[in-house]
Specification:
Distance between the termini: 18 Å
Number of domains: 1
Radius of gyration: 15 Å
Strand content: 15-25%
Strand order of the largest sheet: 2-1-3
Helix content: 25-40%
Largest sheet: 3 strands, parallel
Structural class: alpha/beta
Shape: globular
Length: 133
Protein backbone atom coordinates (compact mmCIF):
# COMPACT_ATOMS: atom_id res chain seq x y z
CA UNK A 1 0.00 0.00 0.00
CA UNK A 2 2.94 2.31 0.58
CA UNK A 3 3.74 2.10 -3.14
CA UNK A 4 0.12 2.99 -4.01
CA UNK A 5 0.28 6.01 -1.71
CA UNK A 6 3.64 7.11 -3.13
CA UNK A 7 2.47 6.66 -6.73
CA UNK A 8 -0.49 8.95 -6.04
CA UNK A 9 1.79 11.49 -4.35
CA UNK A 10 -0.16 11.31 -1.08
CA UNK A 11 1.76 12.67 1.90
CA UNK A 12 1.15 9.82 4.32
CA UNK A 13 2.77 8.50 7.44
CA UNK A 14 3.05 4.82 8.28
CA UNK A 15 4.05 2.90 11.38
CA UNK A 16 6.81 0.33 11.35
CA UNK A 17 8.71 -1.61 13.96
CA UNK A 18 11.69 0.23 15.38
CA UNK A 19 14.17 -2.26 13.89
CA UNK A 20 13.38 -0.91 10.39
CA UNK A 21 14.73 2.49 11.41
CA UNK A 22 18.29 1.44 12.27
CA UNK A 23 21.30 2.76 10.42
CA UNK A 24 21.82 2.99 7.50
CA UNK A 25 18.10 3.05 6.70
CA UNK A 26 16.88 5.52 9.36
CA UNK A 27 16.89 8.61 7.12
CA UNK A 28 15.31 6.78 4.19
CA UNK A 29 12.50 5.34 6.32
CA UNK A 30 11.75 8.78 7.80
CA UNK A 31 11.78 10.27 4.28
CA UNK A 32 9.21 7.65 3.25
CA UNK A 33 6.98 8.88 6.10
CA UNK A 34 7.80 6.18 8.63
CA UNK A 35 7.07 6.46 12.33
CA UNK A 36 9.12 4.05 14.46
CA UNK A 37 7.04 1.92 16.82
CA UNK A 38 8.50 0.17 19.85
CA UNK A 39 6.43 -3.01 19.94
CA UNK A 40 8.15 -4.57 22.95
CA UNK A 41 6.27 -2.33 25.40
CA UNK A 42 2.85 -0.80 25.77
CA UNK A 43 3.33 2.87 24.91
CA UNK A 44 -0.13 4.31 24.19
CA UNK A 45 0.45 4.46 20.45
CA UNK A 46 -3.26 5.08 19.81
CA UNK A 47 -3.20 8.15 22.08
CA UNK A 48 0.02 9.40 20.48
CA UNK A 49 -1.45 9.09 16.98
CA UNK A 50 -4.71 10.78 18.04
CA UNK A 51 -2.67 13.69 19.42
CA UNK A 52 -0.69 13.88 16.18
CA UNK A 53 -3.88 14.09 14.15
CA UNK A 54 -5.37 16.74 16.42
CA UNK A 55 -2.25 18.91 16.23
CA UNK A 56 -1.93 18.67 12.43
CA UNK A 57 -3.91 20.53 9.80
CA UNK A 58 -3.50 17.67 7.36
CA UNK A 59 -2.25 14.20 8.07
CA UNK A 60 -2.70 10.77 6.57
CA UNK A 61 -1.65 7.57 8.30
CA UNK A 62 -1.25 4.26 6.48
CA UNK A 63 -1.99 1.25 8.71
CA UNK A 64 -2.51 -2.41 7.90
CA UNK A 65 -5.10 -3.77 10.31
CA UNK A 66 -3.21 -7.04 10.64
CA UNK A 67 -0.33 -5.16 12.26
CA UNK A 68 2.13 -7.51 10.54
CA UNK A 69 3.06 -9.02 7.19
CA UNK A 70 2.27 -12.51 8.53
CA UNK A 71 -1.07 -14.26 8.23
CA UNK A 72 -3.41 -13.50 11.14
CA UNK A 73 -6.83 -14.73 12.24
CA UNK A 74 -8.09 -11.40 13.59
CA UNK A 75 -7.35 -7.79 12.76
CA UNK A 76 -5.92 -5.47 15.37
CA UNK A 77 -8.23 -2.56 16.14
CA UNK A 78 -5.77 0.27 16.75
CA UNK A 79 -6.58 1.83 13.37
CA UNK A 80 -10.24 2.02 14.38
CA UNK A 81 -9.52 3.55 17.80
CA UNK A 82 -7.21 6.15 16.23
CA UNK A 83 -9.96 7.17 13.78
CA UNK A 84 -12.61 7.39 16.50
CA UNK A 85 -10.33 9.32 18.87
CA UNK A 86 -9.21 11.77 16.19
CA UNK A 87 -12.73 11.97 14.71
CA UNK A 88 -11.49 11.21 11.21
CA UNK A 89 -12.70 8.88 8.44
CA UNK A 90 -11.00 5.65 7.44
CA UNK A 91 -10.02 5.28 3.79
CA UNK A 92 -10.27 1.59 2.97
CA UNK A 93 -7.40 0.49 0.77
CA UNK A 94 -6.89 -2.95 -0.70
CA UNK A 95 -4.51 -5.31 -2.40
CA UNK A 96 -6.38 -8.03 -4.26
CA UNK A 97 -4.07 -10.91 -5.13
CA UNK A 98 -6.69 -12.67 -7.30
CA UNK A 99 -7.01 -9.75 -9.73
CA UNK A 100 -3.52 -8.34 -9.12
CA UNK A 101 -5.03 -4.93 -8.35
CA UNK A 102 -4.68 -2.46 -5.54
CA UNK A 103 -6.13 0.89 -4.65
CA UNK A 104 -8.69 2.61 -2.49
CA UNK A 105 -12.25 1.36 -2.07
CA UNK A 106 -14.38 3.51 0.22
CA UNK A 107 -14.19 6.24 2.80
CA UNK A 108 -15.76 5.00 6.01
CA UNK A 109 -16.73 7.19 8.95
CA UNK A 110 -16.71 5.20 12.19
CA UNK A 111 -19.75 5.51 14.44
CA UNK A 112 -18.07 4.43 17.67
CA UNK A 113 -19.85 1.04 17.64
CA UNK A 114 -16.79 -1.07 16.91
CA UNK A 115 -18.65 -4.39 16.53
CA UNK A 116 -21.07 -3.04 13.94
CA UNK A 117 -18.45 -0.94 12.19
CA UNK A 118 -15.98 -3.82 11.85
CA UNK A 119 -18.68 -5.91 10.18
CA UNK A 120 -19.28 -3.08 7.70
CA UNK A 121 -15.56 -2.57 7.08
CA UNK A 122 -14.90 -6.29 6.56
CA UNK A 123 -17.85 -6.46 4.15
CA UNK A 124 -15.89 -4.16 1.84
CA UNK A 125 -13.21 -6.84 1.57
CA UNK A 126 -15.45 -9.88 1.03
CA UNK A 127 -14.59 -10.12 -2.67
CA UNK A 128 -10.85 -9.45 -2.19
CA UNK A 129 -8.17 -12.12 -1.84
CA UNK A 130 -5.24 -11.31 0.40
CA UNK A 131 -1.62 -12.11 -0.31
CA UNK A 132 -1.64 -14.70 2.49
CA UNK A 133 -4.64 -17.04 2.30
Amino acid sequence: MLLVVLSRKIDARWMGKQQLFRRPFHGFMKWLGGVAIQRSQANNMVDQMVSSFKSSDTMSLLITPEGTRSKVKEWKTGFYHIAVGAQIPIVLGFIDASTKTCGFAEIFTPTGDIDSDMITIKECYKDKTGLRK
